[in-house]
Here is the input.
Amino acid sequence: MSINNLDSTNSIPSQSNALSADEKYMQRCIEIAKNGLGTTAPNPMVGAVIVYNDTIIGEGFTSAYGGSHAEVNAINSVKDSTLLKNATIYVTLEPCSHYGKTPPCADLIVKMGIPKVVIGLKDPHEKVAGNGIKKLKAAGCEVNVGVLEQECAEHHKRFLTFFTKKRPYIILKWAETSDGFIAPEPLIREEEKKPYWITNTKSRQLAHKWRSEEPGILVGTNTVLADNPQLNIRQWTGKAPTRIVLDRNLRISKDFHVLDGKQKTIVCTQIVDTTKYVKGVSYKILNFESQLPQQLCNLMFEEQLQSVIIEGGSQTLQSFIDADSWDEARIFRGAAEFQKGIKAPKPTGRIIKQMEILTDQLTILRND
Here is the structure.
């Protein structure tokens, strides 16, 4: 499924000057690596390109989790393997050096006799952390590290945040009216239990695309009670994210969509009475009186969720802003006015993108 001019939020900063040969091939690595977005986690979405005599003879990106890594796919795509002994392989991230679900990529590069390896950036994972580079150099490979390092770091922002900050890459997302409200007064829709749309259909489809790209989505109790959201990707294709629902006192009844068992769901609560739990839903006990965003970050880290979209409500979003536990804010502004209601959060950050989506305005902030 596609949307015309539906801009990606994972684009690479444009290059103002002419690229060197190494930079040109590394940029290609980044471009093809994006094909793994939403499928590779907890593995990084790596891109690899193999060049012989200034010609690309093979390329690949990381398969869905459990499948082959980018280097393996690139090597397997080369029709004449004898060329590998005089080729260069480019990769966005340091080749792995340990056994996981697949053998080490560094070992395969050495086995195939590839003499030169160009790497975007080192892998911060404790099982790699420079060991892949050491293994390649020990085998006699020429290794060049740091080509388009900033661009590769931007591409691998989820993976890097997860392993350096021990929490997911956190994306705040909401829609607000032209007069700055995130929702009307609760009494207006108390009996409806359905969303009150601020944005147009194209913006909503983009939001579903984003959900397919991240492994987790988090909402608060009031959002569920007011909107009864499904938090799925029914307007896109791909894998639905794990739903994380805050429900301190288990006010959400089993007839709400988030408890339908159709996708993995974790309910965070302070109620320990398991007789009140809904079958097929996972429950986690948290202390709602103390550093809740930090507790949630720890929980999501334990669940191996490298990135999470937080879709509301206003109190939940603001709690992550106040705790300085966020990386991006994606804010839709629609043409509607409420005049009164629930005020939208007010984060401070660097604007990295602004665009129009029909009648809506999208602003993306980065918390540097």
About this structure: Residues 1-8, 10-16 have pLDDT under 50 and may be disordered. The first helix runs from residue 21 to 33. The longest strand covers residues 169-176. Residues 5 and 357 are 9 Å apart (CA to CA).
